[in-house]
Amino acid sequence: MADVMLELSAWEDLANIPADPPRMRPLCSKCCRPVQVCWCAALPPEPLNPAGRIVLLQHPAEEKRSLRTAPMLSVGLAPGKCLIYKGKRFPNTRHDAELETILADKRSLLLYPSASSVPIEQIDPAGGPYNLILLDGTWPQAKAIYHCSTALHAMRQVKLVSSGTSSYIIRTQPTEGCLSTLETAIQALSALERDDRYREQLLQPLHVLCQYQLANGAVTHQSKEFLIRHNQYPKLIGRRLNRLLKHADNFKDDPSDGTERKQST
């Protein structure tokens, strides 16, 4: 009996020993990534200061992704030039009054490929300070945000007509020509500001991120469109993706129609 009591006492002593806190890798104070994988050295020498502001309406699921491009935009631009609001509907009661003012401002532009969107190159930059609204999430999440946010429907809407190939090669895009949030903002800012520094400088952190991931086991990702066309896609194709691919085919047949496939968040 005494042996049993002694054993129980020993277990109680062990149970009362506080657990060691998990060892956390030191984080960069600017990008909040582990120092070993920080991309801040690739940021512009000085934060870029556009005449307008980028306003990201971010789906909550996007914040959970470990490899995101929105933070690169946030720290690559001057303070106050990149605002981020989170939610599935905008504005809502959790947002400050400034967002409602921004969405109602006649100088605000929504980057969204609707039937009424005009090429962003047609916007006169002499119109004064602007707010460029981007929906940050996957394409289905962006569509859901748009349909749930009636305040967005009355805004002036713009689109990117020529986007090129994404440099975000470690993430699978739905179709050829889709861009990350950072790349979409860079293309838009370059057009609105008439300044190529946004392409030349803001894209460098993304290159560093991809190079590090590839050096540590990541692989280059082709788009779902590419994999399906080459019989390499391992899953069944859903109706939404099927429609998107048909739209891509139509675009190739008629390049004057540059909408949905040209932007991705």
- The assigned CATH architecture of the domain at 50-216 is 3-Layer(aba) Sandwich
Question: How do the helices and strands follow one another from N- to C-terminus?
Answer: HEHHEHEEEHEHHHHH
Q: In which range does the helix fraction lie?
A: 25-40%
Form type: globular
Number-wise, the strands total 6
Describe the protein in words.
- The protein has a domain at 50-216: Alpha/beta knot (3-Layer(aba) Sandwich), CATH 3.40.1280.
- The protein has a six-stranded parallel sheet, sandwiched between helices.
- It contains ten helices and six strands, in the order αβααβαβββαβααααα.
- Residues 251-265 have low confidence and may be disordered.
- 31% of the residues are buried.
- The chain has helices at 2-15, 60-63, 70-76, 97-104, 139-148, 181-193, 197-202, 204-215, 224-229, 239-253; strands at residues 53-58, 82-86, 108-111, 118-119, 131-136, 156-159.
- It has 265 residues and is of the alpha/beta class.
- The termini are far apart.
- The protein is 36% helix and 10% strand.
- The longest helix has 15 residues, at 239-253.
- It comes from Anopheles melas.
- This is tRNA-uridine aminocarboxypropyltransferase.
Short key terms for the protein model shown above:
disordered C terminus; 265 residues; alpha/beta; Alpha/beta knot; 10 helices; 6 strands
Short description:
This protein is an alpha/beta fold and 265 residues long.
Summarize the topology.
Blueprint: H1 2-15, E1 53-58, H2 60-63, H3 70-76, E2 82-86, H4 97-104, E3 108-111, E4 118-119, E5 131-136, H5 139-148, E6 156-159, H6 181-193, H7 197-202, H8 204-215, H9 224-229, H10 239-253
